[in-house]
Amino acid sequence: MYRILLVDDEILVRDAIRENIDWKAMDCELVGDCDNGKAAAEFVQTHPVDIVLTDILMPYMDGMELSCFLHENYPDIVIVIFSGFGEFEYAKKAIQYDVSEYMLKPVTAMELRAVIEKMKKKVDQRREEKQKLERLTQTSENYQKNAIVIRSKALQAFVDNTKTREESLEELSGLGISLEAACYRVAVFDLDLYSDSMQLTSEKRQESALMSFVLFNVSDEIVSREKAGVAYQEGNNKVCVLFMGNRTREFSEKIMKICEMIQTKLKELMALEVSIGVGSWARTQQELLVSHELADKAIGYRYLLGGSLLIDMEEHPVENIRYSDDLMEKLSTALKAGKKENADSVLDRIAAEIKAARVDKSRACVYLQQIIRAADDTCEDMVPDSTLLSERETLLRRVTEQKSFDSAFALVKDHVGKIFQVLSDANSSSGQRQARLALDYIQKNYMDPDLSLNSICSYLNISTSYFSTIFKDLTGETFTEVLIRTRMEKAKELLENTTMKNYEIAEKVGFADPHYFGISFKKMTGCTPTEYAREKRK
């Protein structure tokens, strides 16, 4: 039976609702009706209520104030708000008070019956959650009083090497546990839902600990039944299994099957997913610690690979990251050339290689930040005044805050897409795009003494006369002027920061004739290369 309270200051509305609903047929009871929120607040303090149907505008205490009161004091009560057309947007603000439904007046009996049926399901859900939490709380309290805690601490001490082997074995023997085995492996289990435990509320942390105990019970039952080892709790959230047996392919396969059984059972019982890392084989107590560290490290791959993991660290060694600056250069080239499919392909390749490398979150974020900077630098080269460049710091922070690599990578890919659009807009005409590609080509090939107007036109596949026009329109300079200026700027850098000879610098920046380099340098700067270097190196 579902107990319903009706709150409306219009008696005709209350009478109509009371008389036009067959409450008994709906397995409901209209336990009361009130003409204002104040009376309703007093009513629920002395009468059990499951659902409150309330108007908004009422004397003494309106529907919003009543919703706030119920949310803070009786969170299990489901709230439905009636509102007139002009109040509807106002009513939506009640979402902060966990209002479940809004109904626009006038309300028909059919509409109300449909909403009540919907709210009954919500009441059932809240009852089940409350009962589940009460059962788990009771189980947890009993758990704290028994020897499982002691056993878990003793097993953890053995694996973590905090006691000598003799001390640990003696302690565990007193608890009826024998650890005599040819080899060991440690598996670490962690519930995906509570993986970010540092950011959980106190209530969620308690719930996490309770669910972790359910995971422990499931693991302990299956591992014991299979006679494969012992389970123990590690802290409040993780569960570990110390597998014991011979180092054979058959036992390795059995370990993975047991882990899969635990994942399946937990999904069936609590609709929860768990990630599992299985460490390396160990013969000594010191190797046990390494096995545990590897298993725990596997759990960290959840950021890269998503949840419900089962990783055997013997089968999945850590790889080295393979992508290099070459991929960043390809990304920049694709953006400049207006080839989005190429840019997306490069991004997907980078993401795949980061995942394959099994890097931790901090390193993955560094690689993502490198992509952002490479894309931003490309944008700055071609459209220096883009507003996108001012968003970098905010974006870098948001990328770091993401709980998964996929969500962080989606932010990066979206940002690169925006940059592509900015560059596409800037290169709206083919002439502008070709002129910008020419500038990029000069930057990359200025050191080639054979670089000429003809060679760059051949690269762009356009005529020299057309190129000269579009290039001058974009830059305000001729090709030769830009090339000489670029070479001189590079020469200045070398003169300032190195001890190279003038002829070496001339060759480095694309001058086959050192004498001509000296003449060109003085014409542009007003001094010889030697004089410039002497002045700058003081």
TrEMBL record:
Supply the Pfam families for this chain: HTH_18, Response_reg
Q: Where is the HTH araC/xylS-type domain?
A: 436-535
Q: Where would one find coiled-coil regions in this protein? A: 109-146
Q: Where in the cell is it found?
A: Cytoplasm
Q: Which residues form the signal peptide?
A: none
Modified sites of kind 4-aspartylphosphate: 55
Report keywords, A-Z. Answer: Coiled coil, Cytoplasm, DNA-binding, Phosphoprotein, Transcription, Transcription regulation, Two-component regulatory system
Q: Where is the Response regulatory domain?
A: 3-120
Where does it mainly reside? cytoplasm
Say yes or no: keyword Secreted present: no
Protein task: May play the central regulatory role in sporulation. It may be an element of the effector pathway responsible for the activation of sporulation genes in response to nutritional stress. Spo0A may act in concert with spo0H (a sigma factor) to control the expression of some genes that are critical to the sporulation process.
Q: What is this protein called?
A: Stage 0 sporulation protein A homolog
